[in-house]
Amino acid sequence: MQIQANTPEEYLAALPDHQCESVTRLREILRANLPSELEETMAYGMITYVVPHAIYPPGYHVDPRQALPFVSLAAQKNHIALYHMALYALPEQLDWFTAAYADRVPGKLNMGKSCIRFKPRQTIPYDLIAELCRRVSVAEYLATYEAGKPIKPSRDGQP
């Protein structure tokens, strides 16, 4: 499910009722806990937090006209997706997150390379997501990106 929206506010307004509250709360957590250098925008049909060209002029290697994505949030047909690129680029962050999730959240983690999926009626661990957002600085992310671990798009073309 791709929502056509030009702003995060338009995106939220277009969400089905059963997803709006969770996506809105996740957005609030992202805004409060992600590094302040990031900019909120719409990219790939999702609310996306990017390293702006003013900080990283080369942009995203897949499309240098795009700013480098860091985190994206989307409501899909059957789940809410949180794409956190540091989970893909930094194995130690993935290890921490999977262990912390297992310790704090009942049930199995539903995750791809960078995508955490939350099914309807699943308890979203908002406190864990907030902690994840505070764990990686823009400088650390850019150092990893520049060290030759480019963040590749997933099979569906999204970061």
What count of domains describes the coordinates? 1
Question: Percent of residues in helical segments?
Answer: 25-40%
On the 0 to 100 scale, the average pLDDT is: 91
Q: How many β-strand runs?
A: 5
Distance between the termini: 16 Å
Q: According to CATH, what is the class? A: Alpha Beta
- Strand ordering within the main sheet: 1-2-3-4-5
Question: Any idea what the radius of gyration is?
Answer: 15 Å
Q: What structural class do helix, strand and pairing data support? A: alpha+beta
Bin the strand percentage: 15-25%
Here the CATH topology equals Aspartate Aminotransferase, domain 1
Care to describe what's here?
The chain is an alpha+beta fold and 159 residues long. It has one domain (8-146): Alpha-Beta Complex (Aspartate Aminotransferase, domain 1), CATH 3.90.1150. Helix content is 38%, strand content 18%. The protein contains 6 helices and 5 strands. The chain has a 5-stranded antiparallel β-sheet. β3 (68-75) and β4 form a beta hairpin.
Could you list some keywords that capture this structure?
159 residues; 38% helix; Aspartate Aminotransferase, domain 1; 5-stranded antiparallel sheet
Briefly characterize the structure.
Helix content is 38%, strand content 18%. It is of the alpha+beta class. A 5-stranded antiparallel beta sheet has the order 1-2-3-4-5.
Write the layout of secondary structure elements.
Blueprint: H1 8-14, H2 17-33, E1 39-43, E2 46-51, E3 68-75, E4 80-84, H3 85-89, H4 91-104, E5 115-118, H5 126-134, H6 138-146
Antiparallel strand pairs: 1-2, 2-3, 3-4, 4-5
Helix pairs in contact: 2-5
